[in-house]
Amino acid sequence: MIKVGEHGWLEKDAPVAGPLDAIVRPIAVAPCSSDTHVMHGGAGPFENRILGHEAVGIVEEVGELVKNFKPGDKVAINCVTPDWNVQNVQRKGSNPSHDVGLMGSFKFVLQEDGVFAELFKVNNADANLVIIPDDVPIKSALMAADMMPTGFYAAEQANIQLGDTVVVFGIGPVGLMAVAGARLLGAGRIYAIGTRKNCAELALEYGATEIISYKDGNTVEQILEKEGGQVDSVIIAGSNASAINEALALVKPNGTISSVNFYDISEKFDIPLIEWGLGMSDVTLKTGFCPGGGMRMEKMLNLIQAGRVDPSKLINYEFEGFDKIPDAFIMMDEKPRDLIKPAVFFDKIE
Ligand code: ZN
Predict the structure, then answer these.
(1) I want to staple 256 with a disulfide (CB 3.0 to 4.6 A). Which of 93, 148, 223, 284 is the partner?
(2) How confident is the model at residue 93, as a pLDDT?
(3) 35: CA distance to ligand 1 center in Å?
(4) How many other CB atoms sit within 10 Å of the CB of residue 115?
(5) How far is the CA of 254 from the centre of ligand 1 (A)?
(6) From ligand 1's centre to the CA of 153, what distance in Å?
(7) At what angle do helices 147-156 and 173-184 cross, to 10 degrees?
(8) What pLDDT score does 204 carry?
């Protein structure tokens, strides 16, 4: 990102490892809609900032206090890399992704340079890196950087119990992983709301039991009618703030709404009091974003290794070579209708 609305190549000095850091050479990266959001000024007027927060790579160098990793290790990195020495991440039940304040642990791009580079720095390397086992494909490990842990968090914070009925708003890559997460957590019926054909097919593959399209009428009414009433949990992984109102209309008393949407600064949310149960509904509205860290990554890779989920299916546009990063980034920005997730592989891979 050269400045708001402008992207291109930047020549910068190589990052320097502090005592707890690692320097990583990426072997694959994936652009994300939040990178394009940032480029357009959605997170502030950054200048000369390296974009990118989804990567897998090879450790190039480690700081003097890093114990568990060494140059040559093939590693996966969560897009969120908390500073684990901050007390705020020790709060019981807290999401460690807000280490020094709101989204403070989102170091790549928001706090410092990101991963679309020849080398990038990972803070707190021992707590934030994980070795990629040989039987975990690079494509899957790459989707474990953000799409999978974010989508799964959407399902986790939805408080899904065995047999629950769940609605998922949005079947982009995060919503698709929320569907997969809801199934793994034991949801019974899963209604996925979306219209794009390839995403709908993949949603069914990941565990949706029904696809709901606004083209067939009001989505809330369609679900209430099919279900014969309200549902246990609603996940918002797409759409805008109006989805919260729709979710309130869909969720039962005592139910949970789980949102992982990054809402726009210009949006406003008005609580409709009838749907809010006049304040008596005991509905939980939980918001949040990707929990980071090495242990989280280990869990994601465990799920892939055990064959519980294959997140590599999200990647439907592949680019080869470091110099193709802008092509993939522009594709993410323009979002052709059939795009699910683009990825760039620096070397040929299987
Ligand atoms: Zn991302």
Answers:
(1) 284
(2) 83
(3) 7
(4) 27
(5) 31
(6) 14
(7) 50
(8) 98
